[in-house]
Structure formats: C-alpha cells, structure tokens
Design goal:
about 40% helix; Rossmann fold; 10 helices; globular; alpha/beta
Length: about 325
C-alpha cells in the first residue's frame, strides 16, 4: 500500500517523487515530447524532465495555459529548454499537422510521453466521428506515435542512445466492457458507460505499448515502449463530474498522491538507467506491475493493432507478430 511507502525492487515506492526517482540523472542531449503538458501530471513531468536537462516540447491543446506553465517553469529553472506546440489529440488533422511540423523542424526525438487523457465525458464523438475517450486517449496517440516513429529511429541510430515511448494508462483498465474493447460498437451510444469507456481506452494504451515493443524488437531498433499507471492522484481529469471532483478534493490529503508523487513513475520509466532495455511492461509506483489478463491477451492486442490502423488510416510497412 502506497500510504506505508513500501519499496519495490527498484528501490522506490508509491510515495517517491519524480525528483527522487530521477536524482543524479543527466538528461542533457535528450529531446522529449510530452502530450497534455499544460495541466495535471503533464506539468510536473515537463518540469522534472527539464530539471534533468532534457529539451522538452510541450504538446497541448490550450496554448495559453501552456505558455503560462512554460513561463512558471522557466522562472524556476532559467536554463531550461522548453518549447510549446499545439496538439489536439481528439483531432487526427491536428495530430497530422503537429507531426508534420515537428518532422519539418529537424529536431531529434529521444522520448515520447503519451500523457494526455480525458475521463468521464458524456457520450461525444470526435471530429472524425470516434467516441471521445478512445479518440483522445488511444487513437490520437497511436497515430502520433506512428508518425513520429521514423524520427525516433533516426535519432536513436545517429545518437546511439535508447529511445523510449511511455504510454500513460490506469488501473481503470480492469474496468471494461465484457469483451474488453467494443470494436464493433466503439461509436455506439447505446450501452455507453463513461467509466467503462475510459477503462477501455486505458486497456488500449497497454496493448498499444505491448504491440510497439514487439514491433521494435522485431526490427532490432533501440527503442522501448512501456505503459505506466500513475496511481490515484488529484488532477482535473474529473472536471466533467462535479460530484466526483468534490469527493476527490475532500479526501486528497488522506488517500491520493500529490503531483510530485504522481509524475514519478512516468519520469522513472522515461529516464532511469535501470529501465534500459526493458520493453512491453506495465509499471506502477516506479516498479514493474501485473496488468489484467485482457491486457496480456495477444489476440486482443493483434485485433486492436489492426483496428487502430484502419481507424487512423495510416500506412504501415510491418505489423508486429502478436500471436
């Protein structure tokens, strides 16, 4: 239990902070993209990566909020390297523009943190007609990762540094529809449940990381892909449900992690040398954890991969052998 601060094999626990798990790590020479960087855990993740010397590109929908976050971090860390770019993950057009602009910039890319996410919206469809949880939390990141993968491969090859992809997921991946993912009813309002829709998208995040890990291993590329559960944290992710948000705020000091602790697992998997070469794993509290049986289902992973390719309309040269 995190309250007692029991340490795992990594030497860290759920009470460890992002600064603690990255203490002494030099991330200079690393270029990172953090999606959803203007709020919640994205802010602390950006700050700690910049603190350790990484060049961080904040990718977010709200550019005004992003500039304010950047200014606040730069005031604390005057030598930090931070840039901002607009990205709305619920819009494939926005994802494609972001990726195109990034590739055209000529910047390297060592680290991709797929952090952005939504929870608890009433039934809504994205601009492309995709249920909003799956569009924002999964398919937007699936498309973004694919469009930036060649840049990551090129960076890894030229720098001889391991690239890392980190997908943020949740223990809520265990709370899903009967079939795990409603492939045939993704955009069907009947039977919609915001908790299960969120869980479905978080299950997809784990399966996506596992598929990426297998693909990159087959290609013998020096890039890893893992998924991370941050723990119960007070963020604005409950903003669509005032009652839930009020309850969360009332118990935060007793049960929930603070932002410093919440960003720890992301930063640990992103930077720590102990995670070098580790791929396809599920991390919680800065240690390798055990996801649900569905999250380890090779057939479900394969079906999701093919579904996501069709959903995003991307062209791929190779599909991972997922069994």
């Amino acid at each position: 239990m995190w309250i007692f601060g029991w340490k795992g094999p990594s030497g860290f626990s759920a009470r460890s902070t992002a600064e603690e798990v990255t203490h002494g790590i030099d991330a200079s020479g690393i270029t990172a993209i953090v999606t959803g960087a203007s709020s919640g855990i994205g802010i602390e993740t950006t700050r700690v990566l910049a603190l350790r010397g990484a060049h961080v590109i904040m990718a977010m929908r709200n550019m005004g909020a992003g500039r304010e976050v950047k200014e606040a971090i730069m005031k604390e860390l005057p030598s930090a390297q931070i840039d901002t770019m607009e990205l709305d993950l619920s819009s494939m057009a926005s994802v494609r523009k972001f990726a195109s602009d990034y590739v055209s910039s000529g910047l390297p890319l060592n680290l991709l943190v797929n952090n952005a996410g939504i929870f608890g919206t009433p039934f809504m469809l994205s601009q492309e007609g995709i249920e909003l949880h799956i569009a924002t939390n999964h398919s937007g990141h699936f498309l973004l990762t694919n469009l930036l993968l060649e840049t990551m491969k090129r960076t890894s090859s030229r720098s001889n540094k391991e690239g890392r992809i980190v997908n943020l997921t949740s223990e809520a991946h265990r709370l899903v529809y009967h079939d795990g993912i409603r492939f045939d009813k993704i955009n069907d309002e009947s039977g919609y449940n915001f908790v299960l829709a969120y869980g479905q998208s978080k299950l997809a995040n784990i399966l996506h990381a596992k598929g990426l890990a297998r693909l990159l291993k087959e290609e013998e590329v020096q890039i890893t892909a893992n998924s991370v559960h941050l723990g119960a944290i007070s963020t604005n992710i409950f903003r669509h449900h005032k009652l839930i948000n009020a309850i969360v705020c009332s118990i935060i000091k007793y049960v929930l992690k603070n932002m410093d602790q919440g960003a720890a697992t992301t930063c640990y998997v992103a930077l720590h040398p102990r995670v070098a070469g580790v791929s396809g794993e599920y991390f919680a509290d800065s240690n390798i954890g055990k996801p649900s049986n569905l999250a380890r289902d090779a057939n479900l992973a394969k079906k999701l991969w093919n579904f996501s390719i069709n959903l995003t309309g991307i062209q791929v040269d190779q599909t991972p052998d997922l069994g």
